Amino acid sequence: MSHVPKLERLATGLRGRTLKTAKLASRLGMRYAKRTLGRAATEVTPEMRAQAVERAESLVEELGALKGLVMKIGQIASYMPGAMSPEAQRVLSRLQAKTTAMVYERVEEVVREELGGPPDALFDDFEPTPFAAASIGQVHRASVDGRPVAVKVQYPGIEDVLRSDLRAVGVLARMSAVGTRLDGGALVAELRARMLEECDYRVEARHQELFHRLWSNQQGNHVPEVVRSHSARRVLTTALVDASDFQSFCDEAPVEARNRAAEIIFRTCFETVFHRCIYNADPHPGNYLFHDDGEVTFLDFGCVRRFDPDMIDRWKRVALSVVNGDRAAFRKRYVEAGFCTDPRRFDWDHQWEVMRYLYLPFTQKEPFTYTHDYVQKSYGLMIFDNPNKARTAMPPDWLFVNRLQWGLNSVLAFLGATGPWPEIWRAAVESETCPALPVPAEGPLPD
To answer: 52-88 burial, b if ≥16 CB within 10 A, otherwise e?
Structure first.
C-alpha cells in the first residue's frame, strides 16, 4: 500500500496542487455537465464505452491519490446520473469508500499523537489494512473491550490540502460568478466553513451523538454509537456495523427492500430539515449502509448544516405555494426567499415550469418512481436550458441545501424507488419549525 504522495510533501507541493486541483475540477465538472445534459455524443459505441472506463480508472487513481476537495468532486460524479457511462460510473464509485490508503506507520503516528499510545496498546486488536479509505481519512476494523469498532484515522496534513483546494475553487467560483447575481465569495466562504469543520472529528463525534438522539424514536434508521474514550481531533472510533454498501444493495436487494430503504432516507431527511433545522449535508452513497430488510445505517456526520428557522419557514412557504398550484403566492414567496432580485426581468413562466417539475414527486396522484431520466431533465431545466440563470441569486444558506437535494434525488434514482412521497413530504413541510440546535461546544470530548 503506497502512501499519498501529496500529503508527504505539503511544504513544497501545495502550490502545484492548487493548479492541478483547479484543472481537474474544471475538467471533471465540464465533462459531467455535458454528459448529464445530453450535450455529448448520443451514439455510444463499444469503443467509446471502453475509453470511458479507461478514463474512469485513471481518474480513480489520480483523485484517490490527491484526496481532499477534488476527490469529493469525483465522488459526486460517481452517483450523479449521466456524469459518465454506467460502466465508467461504476468504476468511479470506488471513490465513495475505497481509494489509495496511507501506510500503517503513519496511522500509528496519528493514533499515538491523538490518543497517547499506539493502536496495539489502546485496542484489543487493530487491523493494519483499512477497509475504507476516502477523501479525508481511512477506516480500520478494531475492537475495544471485546466490542467490534470502526476507527477513522485522518490523513496527516489533509487540512492544509483542503485549504489549498479551497483557494483554487475560490478563484474559479469568483470568475464564474462574474456577470451573474451569484456572490461567489460568499458561496466559497460557506463551502470553506463546512469543509474545514470536517477536519475536526470531535465536532463530528458530537454531531453523530446528536443525530443518534434525534432519531432514536424513528423506525428503520440507525446511527452507530461513538466510543468517546478512543476518539479525538483526528481519530474517531464508533461501533462497527456489518451491512451492505450502496452498490451491492442496489444490485442484489429485492424491490421491496430498496423501496423501504429509500423511504427511510427520504423521511429522515425532510423530517429533520423541516422540523429540526439541521441535517447532514453530504448525501453521497458511501455514507449509507443497508440491511437486508431495508433498514439504513447513516454514517459520516462531518459535514452538518444548521439552518436558521426563518430560512426554513421561507423554504416551506415556497414549497407549499408550488404543491398547492398557487402561482401568485409562489412569485411572492420566491422573491422573499432571496432567489430573485429583479422580478420584472425574470421569466416567471419558465421558473414555474421548473418548480412544478422539481416537485413532481410530491404532486402526483399515482405512485412516483425516481429515475435517472427524471434527475437528468431537472439539471437541464435548472442549468443550460434556464433563461433565468444569469438573473438568479443563491443565498449561501442554500449551497448545501442544493447539494443535499440533488444528491438525495440521485440516490433515490439508483434505488429505483417508488414510495408515498407526497404524504411524507407534506407532513414534514407542515410540521412545526423548531429553533436551530446549538453548535457543539469546542474543546476535547468530555470523559
So the answer is: bbebbeebbeebbbbbbbbbbbbbbbbbbbbbbbeeb
CB-neighbour burial class of residue 2 (10 A; exposed 0-12, middle 13-18, buried 19+): exposed
CA dist., res. 274 & res. 220, Å (int): 19
Neighbouring C-alpha atoms within 13 Å toward the C-beta of 398: 13
Lowest mean pLDDT across 40-54, 210-224, 269-283, 388-402: 40-54
- Could you tell me where the beta strands, DSSP code E, fall in 146-224? 147-154, 221-222
Cβ of 352: how many Cβ atoms within 10 Å?
Answer: 16
Query: For residues 208 and 10, which has the higher predicted lDDT (pLDDT)?
Result: 208
Q: Write the pLDDT tens digit of every residue in 224-274.
A: 999 999 999 999 999 999 999 998 999 999 999 999 999 999 999 999 999
Q: Model's pTM, two decimal places?
A: 0.78
- Report how far residue 273's alpha carbon sits from residue 305's, in angstroms, rounded to the nearest whole number: 9
Residues in the chain: 447
**C-alpha 245 chain-centroid distance:** 16
Q: Could you tell me the sign of the dihedral formed by the alpha carbons of 217, 222, 228, 233, in that order?
A: negative
